[in-house]
Give the backbone structure.
Amino acid sequence: MRAWQVHELGEPQDVLRLEDVPEPQAHAGMLRVTVDAVALNFPDVLLCRGMYQEKPELPFTPGLEVCGTVLDGPRAGERVLGGPGLPRGGLAEQVLIPETGAHPVPDDMPASKAASLYITYQTGYVGLHRRAQLKEGETLLVHAGAGGVGSAAIQLGKAAGARVIATAGGPDKVKVCEELGADVAVDYSSEDFVAVVKDVTAGRGADVVYDSVGGDVFDRSRRCIAFEGRLVVVGFAGGRIADAPTNHALVKNYSIVGLHWGLYRHYEPQVFHDTHAALLDLWARRQIDPLIGAELPLEDAPAALTRLSDRGTIGKVVLLP
Ligand SMILES: NC(=O)c1ccc[n+]([C@@H]2O[C@H](COP(=O)([O-])OP(=O)(O)OC[C@H]3O[C@@H](n4cnc5c(N)ncnc54)[C@H](OP(=O)(O)O)[C@@H]3O)[C@@H](O)[C@H]2O)c1
């Protein structure tokens, strides 16, 4: 079967090689799945560069979330979504998924949307509800709202009854945020989002900030966080990890909340199942609907990951092997 392999670390377009590799073999606790769709994530870029928190041995195949069809055993024919473990990720025609982590896919959900319902939506749901304790009527500020993580957070924030302010780089992405349901959308490449947040909240600020960009965006978010606000550290797509001055958190009485969704696999795996059930319920009521910016063939992986790293994508980019 074909799989994209990384033999040395670097930029995706330089180091990804499409190769023929042996098919994986199902074994106890693991389901062999044919990949119907694999959704890309910023961490796939970081994996290629060797800059992700997880550092698989070389060679490895990136691809952290898939929707596929079980090939063998009692669940053969069942459509599932989940995360194939590294080093044999989802940029391939077949993967192994842990039996306990193979979540059911409803009949009315296309493969591209199912592949996109895993990492970003689970992260958003756990981040907003469990970690940030977002309440109905609160104001949520979502950064990079037209991206994968951000587009999910806008929908989940609206579904939770929050007022959502979204930021994005450029007018086209601002329009996407509005179409996703953001009450206010700000082009943070040309406008001061701090002033906008203060203006539309009558000076109070945002109760919850969902920040997947970090760096200057994190620093400036501290300027518009509300009394008892929660600033959720989701990621560092901007490249710089900000330092948080603890005296500022004290003086303004807010919390800096770390979010590492994948860790629940080790500490409380039931969270994955409960969150999946909650997401399917939101899908059934169409309160969430993954935004698929592009569907591409497997061959396009290097170019698609390069666009993702260059801020050139909207919502989720999905490859169809
Ligand atoms: N904590 C967790 O458990 C968890 C889980 C999943 C993902 N993440 C993290 O969340 C972040 C977003 O992941 P994603 O897959 O959803 O990516 P994405 O949002 O689809 O893409 C990243 C977005 O970040 C913004 N950005 C700002 N500065 C950037 C820069 N210098 N280079 C590239 N992008 C920049 C861009 O939007 P604008 O052009 O609108 O600024 C870009 O579209 C990543 O850092 C990822 O590691 C964390």
